[in-house]
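As a representative case, we now present a protein record of this kind.
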Amino acid sequence: FNVREGFERGDDTLPERLFTESSTAGPSKGHVVGREAFERMLDEYYDVAGWDMKTGKPLEKKLKALGIDV
């Protein structure tokens, strides 16, 4: 669905404020999400999921494994 609707890696992110404003409560109080750390984590997730790291789209190999015609 997401690929069909044009969803790409640039859309797979967090709200900007989580990168720039520190949390005010809870275990994350005083912390922001590091953009570089987030991008590394996203690379790792895409690798495990079988998705292209640049586009965020499933690789042909993954689609075939799921029985989805390409």
